[in-house]
Amino acid sequence: MSALNINGKAVEVRAEPDTPLLWVIRGELGLTGTKFGCGMALCGACTVHLDGEPVRSCVTPIAAVGTRAVTTIEGLQGAEAQALRAAWTEQDVVQCGYCQSGQIMSACALLKRTPHPSDADINAAMSGNICRCGTYPRIQAAIRQAAGSK
Predict the structure, then answer these.
(1) Range(s) of the chain covered by CATH 1.10.150.120
(2) Are 33 and 73 in contact (CB under 8 A)?
(3) CATH topology of domain 2-75
(4) How many CA atoms lie within 13 A of 43 on its CB side?
(5) Residues of the chain with CATH 3.10.20.30
(6) Distance between start and end Cα atoms, the chain
(7) CATH for 79-149?
(8) Of 105, 99, 25, 109, residue with least CA distance to 61
């Protein structure tokens, strides 16, 4: 048994210490907003926040999490998250939608660190998130819009 802090709640999980956080989030806790994409930390679909920083949950063993706070898309809150969700809708970002929770998690971490990011800041922060539908221009526009609306 391991104790984790997921979305502000203490939870006990039965997974082995080397189990990827993604499998605990999805399989044991039933939080399916965080997606499995590549399993190698290359696509960003599995992005969650660990103490506010974006991490790839597919390669993060629960032993590495310890008592740090894990936030999934289901638990994402705050002004940045609200602004991003509104901008995502207004910019019509979503096409297939599979990558979107990871995209929003990375974008939210960016806006918390850099409230008024340049295009270069956005590109750097989002470079590890792949969108197979190619909605990158709309993602960038939504992040710029969210930065201006907070």
Answers:
(1) 79-149
(2) yes
(3) Ubiquitin-like (UB roll) (3.10.20)
(4) 17
(5) 2-75
(6) 40
(7) 1.10.150.120
(8) 25
Each residue's pLDDT tens digit, 11-63? 999 999 999 999 999 999 999 999 999 999 999 999 999 999 999 999 999 99
What are the residues whose beta carbons fall under 8 Å from the beta carbon of 78, sequence distance 6 or more?
A: 108, 112
The verdict on pTM exceeding 0.90 is yes
What confidence score (pLDDT) does residue 150 get?
Answer: 54
The one-letter amino acid at 146: A
Those residues with Cβ within 8 angstroms of residue 113's Cβ, 6 or more apart along the chain or in another chain: none
DSSP 5: E
The whole-chain average pLDDT of the chain stands at 96
Tens of pLDDT, residue by residue over 125-140, are 999 999 999 999 999 9
Classified as helix, coil or strand, 65 is helix
